[in-house]
Write a structure and sequence with these properties.
Blueprint: E1 3-7, E2 14-18, H1 21-59, H2 63-69
Antiparallel strand pairs: 1-2
Length: 70
């Protein structure tokens, strides 16, 4: 969708217009930032789980013991 919808709450007027070049550029930058943040969150979660598994392995816990801790 490359249109902006503007609604005047006082009059109820609805205006649909194409996005400007600056708005399109900002939209693309925002989308890239959101993808980068999601990737960083997923990497952090994977790193945290890897560390947790390393601790369990170091302690010599069985799968049943790990499940009991969770």
């Amino acid at each position: 969708m490359t249109n902006a919808i503007e609604i005047n709450c006082a009059t109820g007027e609805v205006i649909e217009r194409p996005l400007t070049a600056a708005e399109l550029t900002q939209r693309e930058a925002d989308a890239k930032a959101a993808l980068d943040a999601k990737a960083a969150d997923e990497k952090a979660a994977a790193d945290k789980e890897a560390k947790r598994q390393a601790v369990y392995a170091k302690l010599g816990l069985t799968a049943d013991e790990i499940a009991a801790l969770a």
